[in-house]
Amino acid sequence: MVSIGGTGWMLLFAAVAGLFALVVGLVLGRRMGPLAGLAWFGLGWSIAVIAIVTLVPAQNGLGYIPADQHATSCSWDIGGPAPGGFWIFGGGQQLLNTVLFVPAGFFLVLALARWRAGWLLVPLGLAALAAYSLGIEEIQLHVARIDRACDVTDIIDNVSGAVVGVVLGVALLPLVRPWRARRRLGSER
What we know:
- This protein is mainly α.
- It has one domain (7-188).
- Helix content is 68%, strand content 0%.
- The chain has six helices and no strands.
- It has helices at residues 7-32, 34-55, 93-112, 118-142, 152-176, 179-188.
- Helix 1 packs antiparallel against helix 2, helix 3 packs antiparallel against helix 4 and helix 3 (93-112) runs parallel beside helix 5.
- The longest helix has 26 residues, at 7-32.
- The chain is globular, with a radius of gyration of 19 Å.
């Protein structure tokens, strides 16, 4: 039986996910323009990388974890098992949790801003990223084999990172103006 876990497996899965996201981005880019292709590639790959980093066991060969050694509830202690206590831009795990969601928020804006409904779709997408974070924590709680801890601090850090990404994306919109591609493609037809 092959044991899956550790950095090597994470990198392999990220590369495979990157290739798949690249194909999707290229297909959409031909149809919607290069900026849209890049945005959807980045969004898809960042969401996949989040799942890989948070759900693949951190160490190879964990195997079976007895039920009496696995947590039965999420930590509601702000700061939880992360070193250094709660501070959004502290070091270690919390910084990683924050930074991990920044690209997803950023590419979400670039992918959705081309449509007039983007002003509604982006907040809905941000809520979906928050729900994604919550879902990851639920999986970490219930799947003992991956040996991860469910912690409310992770959700706070993840959502903070997504918000930072959205703010960066919105700040970049006047420069890239993704809605121009919509007009250009519409005038060519």
